[in-house]
Amino acid sequence: MASDPDLPPLPSYSLAPLPPLLSPIPDGILVLICPVVAYWVVSMFFHWIDVNDYFSQYRLHTPAEVLKRNRVTRWEVVRDVIIQQIIQTAFGFGLYFFDGTAQVGREEYDTMVWATRIRLAQRILPRILSVVGVDAVGLAGKLSGYPILAGALSGGHYPFLIQKVVSPSGSIAFAPAFAAWELFAARAIYWYILPAVQFVLATLFVDTWQYFLHRAMHMNKWLYTTFHSRHHRLYVPYAFGALYNHPFEGFLLDTAGTGLAYLITGMTTRQAMWFFTCSTIKTLDDHCGYAFPFDPLQHLTSNNAAYHDIHHQSWGIKTNFSQPFFTFWDRLLNTRWNGDVTLRYERSRLAAQKLINEDTAGAAATQPNEEITPDEHTSDPSDNSNIIDGAATLSRSEEENLSSRNILPRSVRRKTNPFSPQTESRKGLSHGLGGSIRQK
């Protein structure tokens, strides 16, 4: 490329292993650790909000719904998420084992390659201007007081830009040099624009991959029953249930999808750290169960917690397949939910609260009958064996019910208030709730 005598020569370079970002952990291992750490740190933050009943005005569902509508225990969710993360990490470690060590040293060379491309692109400018009747060379002559602008208009000719070049033998020669603006533009492309384009292309690939596989999981009865139905045991999603899937589905949709996006877009390992971690956090946010007006992830794109929550409801399960970034496939293929959902959410809240109230009333009704009286066939009234045996018969389901109820002590028994009057926000593209579920 730089053999043209009118082009600045490209610099030489030598490669060396890239030092790890966080010594002594190799970058290839750190890229596997970051998403797992992010998953549990962020999800536990949302769980902390749940158990302390903070920001209840932004809940998509009440704690009563979490308790009564879901068909899987929290411990089963944690177990399956850990299984998926083990598979994900093992797959990533296999790629790391066969992948070469990242090298450093040719960054300046690659930047100059982009500067050369910019210089070559300027040669087309006179032809483009001639199409609209502008004499680029003549115009450049009138702009002699602005030599850089004149050089660009004339096709990238900068005879006044000269640099001193020292050859390997030690001799000195003079060669063309790049303009300052060309170097600035080249560095911006190499360090910022190109990584941003790679990131966006990767998100588009993941969205496309997940949309069609996710939709197939719903349209094919065998795929849904065998694999995807497990994820939909969570009618009321919460953050650490984001990756609650069948192991095969988790590998196919999440691990394989993001892995292919990384390979196809040509990301570096450090770019992959950002991409995998951001994808994980976005997935958590989509399952967090809150519509925060101050959460940037819920406003950057139209795909957010409120949008995806509709898909988790029995009446919206065949819509809103897009995840985790954008919603363009739902719009293009007419699978986006349309219409107001306020009354549907209100019915779910009232039904769950009714079950809680019935449980509370039933427990209160049995309270007087728990007084222990001496057995007429027992010679020693002070014998406590009957009480102990009775306590031991507490069923596993009752224990889990009690445990779950204690997780959310302050808000489960709260009377259900009417759904927010701010229903218009449910009808928009984002299905956002901006303070939508208000408990007065």
Automatic annotation (TrEMBL):
Segments crossing the lipid bilayer: 28-49, 165-184, 190-213
UniProt-listed InterPro entries: Fatty_acid_hydroxylase, Sterol_Desaturase_Related
Main location: membrane
UniProt GO MF annotations: iron ion binding; oxidoreductase activity
Keywords from the named record: Membrane, Transmembrane, Transmembrane helix
Region (Disordered): 359-440
UniProt record, GO biological process: lipid biosynthetic process
Comp. bias intervals (Gly residues): 431-440
Domain Fatty acid hydroxylase stretches: 199-335
Location in or out of the cell: Membrane
Domain of life: Eukaryota
One GO cellular component, as annotated: membrane
PANTHER family linked: STEROL DESATURASE (PTHR11863)
Protein's recorded name: Fatty acid hydroxylase domain-containing protein
Organism of origin: Polytolypa hystricis (strain UAMH7299)
High-level lineage: Eukaryota, Fungi, Dikarya, Ascomycota, Pezizomycotina
